[in-house]
Automatic annotation (TrEMBL):
Gene3D superfamilies: 3.40.630.30, Carbon-nitrogen hydrolase. The keyword Transferase applies. This is GNAT family N-acetyltransferase. Belongs to the carbon-nitrogen hydrolase superfamily. NIT1/NIT2 family. GO terms for molecular function: acyltransferase activity, transferring groups other than amino-acyl groups. It comes from the Bacteria. Keywords: Acyltransferase, Transferase.
Length: 515
């Protein structure tokens, strides 16, 4: 008998994280699983993957998506027990996901009708439980449908129906399954899903406790999460060598370290100070000579970040890459010695005309020991889409190194940074250059007043200004921002710009680029 090719008989079952390419199948799957209910929108699922990709799972069988489940992390104590699905999911976009929360909240599980009784739901729930164990979360909480309740609604109240299911006198495909999976009943919520007519809009609030959970005392009693920022308003002056530049930079890093700052922030293009001894009159050639210092610049700041134990936003620097193009790049030098970079996305007419700068095309958000941050270089802060994308990706602080030559240009940066802080409920930081380089083309005059800005509400600084420097003087600004206040205000502030967005009439679509 010839050897059989066993591969052609295989039908692989896999539980894996959701991918962008699954979205169309998931939307079609939901229509099959929940006829009559409003299915996911593409931008909602894209938001899930952008904010908490590890919490979204699919069941793939023989190359086809036959099941899925979605979730986010919250601190359940911050929500009313009678919350609705819209409350706890920010209308399905999970922009209220809190990576420092205690509870995984499951917002949907579905299995294609043709593939039920294959323990697909069990496998998806097991994946959630493994995630909870991996992340050391306290529990899984779900608002479960009771889809057979409409058959008994005339003779039984919701609590009576649930009791009958618990006693195994009535079978409910969702509640019975959840009870078998170790979930316990917390309460019954009315009007949970307005379009869930089978459940008469009711849902059972249920919880599965992680018995391996290790409490972290600091999370129970956190009343503040301060981050100290040292903003350097850097004066451009003629120097004779890279060592002169390094000495000036180290001085300010030392100042930040002495103040126990978590971040030291330098301005955009402050490395153009090196042009003052390059003796190159042509701006386009000068930036290429400047890019020759890239390795020295990176080595300097990496060393300083580790030596002085401070995360450094290293301003920005002109870099020539392998494609022979020049880019304006801001670097994050973490105090653990790791490095990240953000390309400037919007190039000013001046940068194109004098230096031939090329644009990046990717919004980055970086993890730090003080939470997620973003860097948006000068002109980029004037485009509100970028800040909103970064906020949706989890950024709590946006750093904006800038370089402007007149007050009008400076005010564009400042006003836009303050607007971004208000509309995204984040902190923004601007750091600019002052002084002059008389013999350097296109860098001869500077205007700046650096600052740290907050949202505008009662718990924040008056006028939304944490602090600001004096105009056009070399100095530092040291200020504290509190990420815990930011989190609380997003949930219960006077206004809630993030939660109150009208996703039903508009959305922002981000095409992730390469640089």
């Amino acid at each position: 008998m010839p050897n059989l090719d066993l591969h052609k008989y295989e039908k692989i079952m896999e539980i894996r994280n959701m991918r962008l390419g699954d979205i169309d199948e998931i939307i079609a799957l939901q229509s099959s699983c929940f006829p009559g209910m409003v299915p996911w929108k593409r931008d909602q699922l894209e938001s899930h993957l952008a904010i908490f990709p590890e919490g979204q799972f699919v069941a793939e069988y023989d190359g086809k998506v036959i099941g899925s489940c979605s979730s986010l992390i919250i601190n359940f104590d911050e929500y009313d027990d009678r919350h609705t699905w819209d409350d706890v999911t920010d209308n399905g976009y999970i922009t209220n996901h809190n990576p420092d929360g205690y509870n995984l909240y499951g917002i949907e599980v579905m299995v294609h009708p043709e593939f039920r009784r294959m323990k697909i739901g069990q496998r998806l729930y097991d994946s959630r439980k493994e995630l909870v164990a991996h992340l050391n979360l306290k529990s899984i909480i779900i608002g479960g449908r009771i889809p057979n309740y409409h058959k008994h609604a005339e003779e039984l109240l919701p609590r009576e129906y649930v009791k009958e299911v618990q006693l195994h006198k009535i079978y409910d495909p969702v509640l019975s399954f959840q009870l078998l999976n170790g979930f316990t009943l917390m309460r019954i919520n009315p009007n949970y899903l307005p379009d869930d007519l089978q459940s008469n809009k009711y849902a059972t609030l249920m919880e599965w406790n992680n018995v391996d959970y290790q409490p972290k005392t600091k999370r129970y009693y956190k009343t503040s999460e301060p981050v100290r920022i040292c903003v350097v308003q850097y004066m451009l002056r003629k120097i004779d060598s890279f060592d002169d530049f390094a000495n000036q930079v180290e001085y300010f890093t030392d100042v930040a370290s002495d103040a126990n700052a978590d971040f030291a922030v330098f301005p955009e293009l402050f490395t153009t100070q090196l042009m003052s001894f390059l003796n190159e009159r042509s701006p386009s050639l000068a930036v290429r000579k400047l890019s020759d210092f890239t390795e020295q610049y990176i080595e300097l700041f990496t060393t300083l970040a580790v030596r002085y134990n401070v995360n450094i936003i290293g301003g920005s620097h002109f870099v020539k890459e392998d494609d022979d193009n020049i880019y304006n790049i801001a670097y994050l030098f973490r105090r653990d010695g790791t490095i990240e970079k953000q390309y400037k996305i919007h190039i000013t007419p001046n940068e194109r005309k004098w230096w031939g700068i090329n644009a990046g095309d990717r919004v980055r958000v970086f993890d730090t020991d003080c939470g997620k941050i973003a860097i948006q270089i000068c002109y980029d802060i004037e485009f509100p889409e970028l800040a909103r994308i970064a906020t949706d990706m989890g950024a709590k602080i946006i750093f904006t190194p800038f370089c402007t030559e007149d007050r009008q240009g400076y005010l564009r940066v400042r006003y836009c940074a303050q607007a971004r802080a208000v509309e995204n409920q984040i902190y923004t930081v601007i750091s600019g250059t002052v002084g002059n380089l008389p013999q350097t083309e296109n860098m001869d005059i500077q205007y700046a007043q650096s600052g740290i800005f907050s949202p505008s509400d009662f718990e924040f600084a008056r006028d939304g200004i944490v602090g600001e420097t004096s105009p056009n003087l070399e100095m530092v600004l040291i200020g504290d921002v509190d990420l815990e206040i930011l989190r609380r205000e997003r949930q219960s502030g006077t206004v809630k710009q993030l939660k109150d967005r009208r996703h039903d009439i508009y959305h922002l679509h981000y095409k992730d680029g390469g640089k």
